[in-house]
Amino acid sequence: MTDFTDLTVPGATGEPFWFLGGQTRVRVPGAVTGRAMSVLEFSETQGQAPPLHIHDGEDEVWIVLDGEISFFVGDERHDLGAGEIAYGPRGVPHSYLVRSARSRLAAVFAPAGIEEWFRRNGSPVTDLDGAPALFDLDAIVASAGEFGLRVAGPPPGA
């Protein structure tokens, strides 16, 4: 399995930040791909799930790096493990649910741009962090419209 820490991408922050209770890293920013795509890495724990949402402007491909994650795309559920891939087309409601104790997920967004929403709504990880930073879900949702992102429902349950 590829460890993204071995990749060298000019402009990639690689620095983790807290987002919705998990750690996120921008691995390939849109600035280095001519805005064609961006790649983010999410490290999360069991039970984490974003609200059901719709991207109006980009397609999303998820690559499970470690762990077990259920992806919900439209009316379908896909239970995936390390090395497996799912696709979330723009305009289709989707979410995921982490089923294993820990997981790592790469998400490819095409075209790029949504990574700025993640950065704007994240908070830095420090050496003193023993737990995820608190976050204001209402504020995060309120800023989503600017990026063509709409919440369509609550996070999926187990």
Describe the structure.
A hairpin with a 2-residue loop joins strand 1 and strand 2. The mean pLDDT is about 90. The chain has helices spanning about 115-120, 135-145, and strands at about 15-20, 20-30, 40-45, 50-55, 60-65, 70-75, 75-80, 85-90, 95-100, 100-110, 125, 150-155. It is built from 2 helices and 12 strands, in the order ββββββββββαβαβ. It is globular. About 10% of the residues lie in helices and about 40% in strands. The protein is mostly beta strands. It has one domain (about 10-150): Jelly Rolls.
Please, what is the CATH homologous superfamily? Jelly Rolls
Helix content: under 10%
Mean pLDDT: 88
Number of strand elements:
12
Main β-sheet, spatial strand arrangement: 8-5-10-3-2-1-11
Helix-strand blueprint:
Blueprint: E1 17-19, E2 22-28, E3 38-45, E4 52-55, E5 59-66, E6 68-73, E7 76-81, E8 85-88, E9 94-98, E10 102-110, H1 115-121, E11 123-124, H2 137-144, E12 149-153
Antiparallel strand pairs: 1-2, 1-11, 2-3, 3-10, 4-12, 5-8, 5-10, 6-7, 6-9
Could you give a quick summary of the protein structure above?
The chain is mainly beta and 158 residues long.
Keywords:
158 residues, mainly beta, Jelly Rolls, three-stranded antiparallel sheet, 42% strand
